[in-house]
Sphingomyelin phosphodiesterase
Amino acid sequence: MQNARSGGDLNTLMDLATFGCTFFRITSPEMCKGLVHSFGPILHYMVMNKPSITAERFCGISLQSSGCTTTDPDSHWKLDLSQYNLVPVSVEPASPKTGEVETSPRRRNYNSIDNNVPKGIRTLKVLHLTDIHVDMDYHFGAMTDCENEMCCHVENGKGPPGKRAGYFGDYNKCDLPFHSYMDALQHISSTHPDIDVIYLTGDFVPHNIWSTSIAGNVETLVNASQYINDFFPRAKVIPVIGNHETHPVNMFSPFGVPSNYSTDWLYSAAARAWSHWIPKESIHNFLHAGFYDVEVDHYFRVIVLNTNLCYGYNFWQSFEPRDPSGQLRWLARELQRSEDIGQFVHILGHVAPSEADCFTVWSQNFYDIINRYSSIVKAQFYGHTHFDEFRLYYHNYNRSQAISPVWIGASLTPYTNLNPGYKIFTIDGARGAESTWNIIDHETWIYNLTDANLNPHLPPRWYKLYQATEAFEIPDMSPESLNNFVQRMSSNITAFNTYYRLYHKATDAALDEGCDNLCRKRILCGIVTPHYGEHKMCLQLQSNVDGIVLPASIFSVGGDSPLRANFGTRSSTDNPFQRVLSFGRSLLRALGK
């Protein structure tokens, strides 16, 4: 930063960065050059045009999961929800003519809806499709183990036995072949012809992060979206932007920066590609920063967030750290509007706000919003991790009360070490004003990639891996039942191993590595903590009883919960040289997601 602000030449600085990346073998020389030349001009603009950006702020936001923190006051902010905290609607106003209470299709008391869903009712079928990462350049037989973050291309050469790209995909650093994408859409549309809604939670573009381009990303987004429309012409599709859709990867700019650094091209291209999916009245918000809402009916709305704005590797956060693009203020206003008229809500995004790489301050503010509006937010859906998992939000002052379920994955791409998959949700949403919009059940479908590649002349054998209520041995999918399952996994290794197998979509190579107590605690802490600050504390907690991974105190009430403590804002004091190496390695891990 000092060199740039002292008048250092941009090309010289990029050459130096490329040399350092190559010399320390952070990644391949090809990737070093491509990434530095993609990110360099943007980072240079940020440093030169925002004097308040410091190394501490940048590290604290972008590398929190590697140990960096920051005391920068601009990076610590809190939304004032009191301006939205209006009195929830309980009764209809009296008619000025008759003096009697009137009912209206646009206004109802949501507290009067019975949460117990009758058996045998008509339901909605929702497809959750995420992290497709379709690779148009995938080459059957190419090397699967190369220096770059993605392989299986002609330029990688022919792989030796055991390292050759399979016909339908590969467990190594390879994305989804186009013909496998077509097979998946054909299978889903024929097996589930009654799909009503599709939650499409981002990442069409493959992992060639060092060689992407605006034109290439737009082509992939447009074509992949059109095929979904072709296979599911009658379904209501609600799409989300993923962190790989932009170029350079992860970079989502604030409003008003010069066009050569702006993300406006992506919002415009996606708005055109999704013009038949995004309501006209929501286009303005979408073009602003990629978030919008869809009113499915009078009683239900889907709110789509651009959670890439909170992703630590979106370096623009250091440029605009306080509620980037005003998204959380907008979210609170929209939830208040839904509460006022008695609407239930689902929230969609790409990166889950509880992810370790979502900036903690943003995640904390989101957590406050979910606590405030938990009565109407019935479920959340995200992607990004590629695993098949769920998480829970708990009441802020009563950690024994789970309030909002979060559903993540499963990815269609096998990148890396995963079987391709998708989810089908059964939802109580077909009863009009009586619908609760609760999740009744869900199932995950996969195919075994090893078996599929044994015979390229036959299509993969897709099958239902599990149904959640059966696999988790719970009566329903309520937050209470899911919380009981989490606590059972904490003390019962058999229950956890069941979840762990499904988490990896029954991929043998991943399961062969096993999961020790630290691994088990990491996954369970990820389920129950709403942001990285608490996740870090959860990992440090000592179990009260041998064999119990999460102590019972973690689910306690009020200030007794060990996660209610202040996790601090001290700045990082690790060695600068180690920080550089950590930065490079952490960056590559994140960019590869």
Residues 29-49 form the longest helix (21 residues).
